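step 3/5: co-fold with alpha-D-galactopyranose
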Amino acid sequence: MKTLVCDRFRDHFKRPPELVVRAPGRVNLLGGHIDYNDGWVLPAAIDRSLWLAAAPRRDARLHAYSATVEEGGEAALDPPPPPPKIAHRPRERWIEYPTGVAWALSQDGHALCGMDAMVVSEIPVGAGLSSSAALEVAFLLAWRELAGLPLEGAEMARLGERVENDYLDVHSGVMDQFASLHGRREHAIFLDCRNLDWELLPLPPRVAVLVADTGIRRQLVGGHVNDRQAECTEALRRLRELGCEIRALRDLQSEQLECLADKLPDSLARRARHVVEECSRVCRGAQSIREGGGGEVLGALMRASHASSRDLYQVSTPELDLLAEAASELEGCFGARLAGAGLGGCVSVLVEEWAAGPVSTGLKKAFSERFGNEPEIHRVGIGDGAEAWNI
Ligand code: GLA
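step 4/5: write tokens
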């Protein structure tokens, strides 16, 4: 991939690149829709990455090309354009991600340099594996290296979150960017999304992760992430009005919710219950890994997480449900849950290493019997976080 992205850079810009960056996608073992509620999550970086080759330009412009979507784009950097008017565009264009990164950096007073950039991605777009966070992380690292910016990991993750929230108007959290930056081979990241305290936890031995793709793609801009985030904000407002002294839904105790749930509209009570129970699942999952537990506990928690995402948070689909439920019944599978934001995309499946092949075959069969087509299933390795090389 490194050679490929450099070759594409040379062909397109007629000069050699000076820097290559790799930023991985992620799976999230536990902690669905918890990051923007200030809670705990358990993601891991995967061995599918977005690659970027870059060189500085003398003028204050970004010229970027994606060999994945075969589309180029340009932006001024002195200053970068303000956030686009979201209401007026049917879908985001990929150049808005690096432009948003430039905007967030310059809002924080960082002096940018011009850049030519070529991007090639191995992360399927819209599958719930964080292709957009990888894009943001890659450009953050590229500017850090080329312009010599004093940026550290947690700050870059927050900058990526701001690109989503304030530039692209997607009200997601910090998990994806953090995982892409901080991943470690064979480790999950136990992350407190309130203060970004984190711990690397070694995955149980002899487990493997599969991602089974429904092939259904969702549209993030103005989509259900924003709806759910707004519902959580409303649930929080009402709970505070009812006397709960909490900063975010992550602070809610299950006993408090027991007492107050019937004073909330049903949908808001469900969202709050999901957050409370999912936070507890993430912490129990992390504890079980710390104590050297195998895949069984993690898998059971993943199954419960999927059920909660389906019934309480209501971000599943029949295709995701079928994959998650069929997987859980196959021999050698510990558990499965929808990846990313849900409503399309992939299911992440935790299996015993020997069972990766048979579980893939079983899932393909179950899915095609019901929906008529075969899902794509990949085994993904748990890999290292983003890195940059001067060349
Ligand atoms: C998307 C968002 C994340 C997170 C997940 C759901 O991936 O970008 O911030 O909210 O959905 O867990």
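step 5/5: annotate
Residues 266-290 form the longest helix (25 residues).
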